[in-house]
Records
---
Amino acid sequence: MTAFFRLVAWSVITAGVVVAMLGAAGYWLYHEAEGPGPLAEARTLVILPKSGIGAIGDLLGDKGVIRHGFVFQLAAGLSARGSALKAGEYEFPAHVSVLQALEIIAAGRMVKHRLMVPEGLTTAEVLALVRDAPALDGDVGPPPGEGELLPDTYVYSYGESRQEVIERMRRAMAHMLAQMWKERRHDLPLASPQDALILASVVEKEAAREEERAHIAGVFINRLKLGMRLQSDPTVLFALTSSGGKLDRPLVHADLSVNSPYNTYLAKGLPPGPIANPGRASLRAAVRPERTEDLFFVADGSGGHVFAKTLADQTKNIAAYRRGQPGDADPAPAADAVVAPAPPSPAASPAPAAPSAASAPAPAARKPARRTAATAPAPAAPAPAPAAAARPVAAPPAQVIKGRRCQPGPDGACLQ
């Protein structure tokens, strides 16, 4: 009998010890899972695809996010969150607990990267940004066409495909262009959304100030209506660099005769395609341009432009710009040029000779240095009439080219 009571007492004591040990273990496990972890400062880790609970726990333990990987395994198993864990890149804050780390991974709160694509970049420049973007996977794939990518800030996660990010840019531009085309003015000389995209790309490269985009677009619209050459320097720059590389010098007068359909000093109408990827503001300006009678613009020396209706006013604006520049030595990139119109040919259309918008290099950082020339009707001519009613205007005997009076040649250049 005594032996029986001793056995019972021993069993009770043993059970008590086991319960106490289990209680202590449970308390320790709860404390480890709930309490602050050892991580001194925030840390980012990548959890690879097909990583199991054990592998994730070991990774967190090895990197010092938590003290013991098996605690993470027990917490994940007991909470039924083990099946919800997602691969990806995660940031764990300082002193994150095991349960908090488990929640971050199970909820898929991955690190978000941002890729900012500025307005006015060429497609090659955008692709270079995508190639250099961290955390993206794969190559960029076949290059999209010029003007097909919408400048914006794009958010992506670790492991996302570069081709998918580029496709998002393409879809965004297609959607934006379709929306803008629906909102266009219906009196514009633009036959298609592609025409609007081309014009917007030229406006993007010409404008340095947000508030001038619609005005610059209005000048180009006026010139298109009158059958005038746009004579925009950014199109010449694109023609010179379209085969790749950068122009390591400013434009000079000889560049204006480069043989390219993108050279709007020689080719009438819009270029055959966009010269950059325009942003929303330039797209809006192209389809909703300002109503103006201006045909010219020239840099004002502070990043903006001065606009003019006549050659006489444009010449005055150029002189004012040149007075504000250091020296008067005819520096090609900074000096505005007014190019005389070519004499009308007997076989030419009855439209007037082609005046053009004049602009000087805007000092804004995101715009390339440029020197823009312009052609104009005679100084005393009134505001131009619509192309259908326009009368030929004979070229004056001499015009001002880069600050010098001279006799214009057939191509509008100064005869030597």
---
Amino acid sequence: MISRITAADCIALDRRADPLEFVASGFAPGAPDTIYLDANSIGPMPLAAPACVAAVLEGGWRLDRRRGWSTADWLEQPRSLGQSVAHVVGAGRDDVLVCDSTSINLYKLLRHGLAVAAPRRRLVVERAVFPTNSHVAQGIAHAGDAELVFIDSDADLAAVLAQGEVAVVALSHVDYRSGTRLDMARLTRLIHEHGALAVWDLSHSAGAVAVQLRECDADYAVAAGYKYLCGGPGAPALLYVHPRLQSSAWPAICGWMGHADTFGFAPDYLPAPGVARQLAGTPAVIANAAWSAAAALWRQVDPVAMDARHRSLSELVLCLFEQECGGLGIQIGSPREHARRGGHVAVRMTGPEADVDALGQALVADKVIVSTRKPDALRFGIHPLVTRHEDLWQAVQRLRRILETGRWRDPAFASRSI
């Protein structure tokens, strides 16, 4: 045990043999002297992303135009990109697509689950989940297609399930504020015991910590493509359907890309077999080109090594928060156990004058790029492929100086969310 962690200790941790070091070299550096701890908002850019996008713009758009649909892999990218990251979330190679957005994919899967579970109509959603998840469910209920039930805890979930007639339960694997990770295996088992289906949002876990969709017997999952998965700003999202459900109902959005014979141009819809029926419209070719740069890196990543590295980094920053900032007005806001934490580590700002948005702005001014979420969460989004232990040491030192001096009280930082 080390009685007090030093900068040298952090540097030594970075110098250990690391099976992911070769992957880290595939990402572009950020601004000088800037520490990026915002992978929970947007992941780092792969070095190859500009060239991948440029190739589509130049060869695909300017020169080939419509021929690009047959000369390039544009039509296959939703499947091939999904195959590149399926192992990262513990899914079968052909069970994942990359398409549309998280919100659209969530809508599709909630609707699909309701169709499979009919005539059951009860849709269970966490009350304090990220707003879009709740909003999508509310829209379905408002249309008269489900009875919406909100829960606040595991006990609430158990009680609602015990009442019967639950069709679908939608859960966020990781809380977007505290970073608390739910026990996917246990909760999915509970949901199945009551005859319901489980939809998991992996936006704050996929590409950061261990996810085992097939092992946990999850029915459905979505994940943002622009966070830890590094697909780029506004990137298409991940969609997963368990094989036993893939062909069990029509998709919620019946589009030509999900037709069994896309270019047969039949007037009547016939859903494609497998997860491909969840495709709807034309692929986002330029966005997928950026995604492909990340996909090439993810194909080389051992998810066990990824999880181990994230554990080392997140446990270090928890220790540093306490060692360097104890008594300075912050408290640990994330669980201590690695298995109960997602991609980011949160601290809570305390005291009557606390203004976490101002504190976050002060950190950004000191070139530590973080994010905040009301009412009191300051989030350090650790990317296991890029973040270094020394980065965390430097970030916590800058945080300590801001807290000691009270610089966050500067009016320039007042009440600005990041």
---
Amino acid sequence: MTQLEAGEDLKLDAYLPYRLSVASNAVSGLIARAYQDRFGLTIPQWRLVCVLAEDGPATQNQIVARTVMDKVTVSRAAQGLLNRGFVARSDHHADGRSHVLALTPEGARLHSEIAPLALAYEAALISGLTPDEVTLLKRLLGRLQTAAGALVGEAQPPP
């Protein structure tokens, strides 16, 4: 039952969007410090490296769609990675206004070095959960993301 259904006033600590944001910020902050301290990467840069490692070469628009980061954030992350030689940019064969980003061999090495660290952080974060709880959490987060996506265009909150 939601706070609204229970006839309660809004209580920030019980408000799910707030709790999700706080949890996300705590996890992102922890991981961001590790990536920054050890590898000099921002979270957007790490996400871009992961997308390119997982999906192969992509345009910035494809990365925006895949990561749900805004265009400016992706552009800045790409530029930082280009400057450090982790990513290469080439012309898009069908769209002269677009570029394709791909990991360089140095970028691939960076990914292979960071990926085990990322997985270790994930393991530590979920160590207090059962495998069934982890599966449920991932499923519920997916459903919340889908619901949020469906509400994006609505002018008013649902009844």
---
Amino acid sequence: MTIARRSPFRADLVQGKVALITGGATGLGLEIARVLGGHGARVAICSRKEANLQAAVEALRQDGIEAAYGVCDVRRHDEVTAVVEEVLRTFGQLDIVVNNAAGNFPVPISALSPNGFKAVVDIDLLGTFNVSKTAYELWLREHGGAVVNISAAIQYRGMAMQAHVVSAKAGIDALTRTCAIEWGPDGVRVNVVAPGAMSRTEGVKRIAGDDQHRTARNPLRRPGLTTEVAEAVLFLASDAASYVTGATLVVDGGGWLAGEG
């Protein structure tokens, strides 16, 4: 559920740009699409479930946002290529890529199967690689642009029941820095947003309990809003961050500093 708030950013901050958001049909991904679209971008979203994508695009269009979708499993390079090619056919350009698709389930290492570990790493890390590399090869290398990868803050300290997730997110952080180094000369900026606990998201409820428990040691004493995380993505994707690349922007109210989680 999204809590409405007034954006601190100019309404046309990404006017004229086209954004692709993976895992964009629900939750944080949909809110990122809504925030980018609400600041002028045309948006394409992708995920594995077409029914969710159709509902999300309809909601975005009702908000006055030009939106399209593609069904895609980010673990499959051929499906990723098809979606990026369709975005280029539909909108004629691709300026912003947001790698948000992710998998998660709480499990101790003793009960974590190799397939379970691989599934999360493949969705989070391999998926980020597939989408970023494909977008770079088909458009960004010749035209520049911005890639924003959604990571987390739990890998900085470690977290019980999340060995598969912290491994994947640490990989995303490292991949981001390397992409920034290699692709910077082509005008491609690559950055990370690392969210903390967000209010009323189903995934966080399953992992960390209620808001009061999660924010007991948070310096700001509250969970974040998906909109606040989406606005961090907006900043890094926009020309306001034109000299920022290879950076990690932690958006967690200082929770990781205080051992929240």
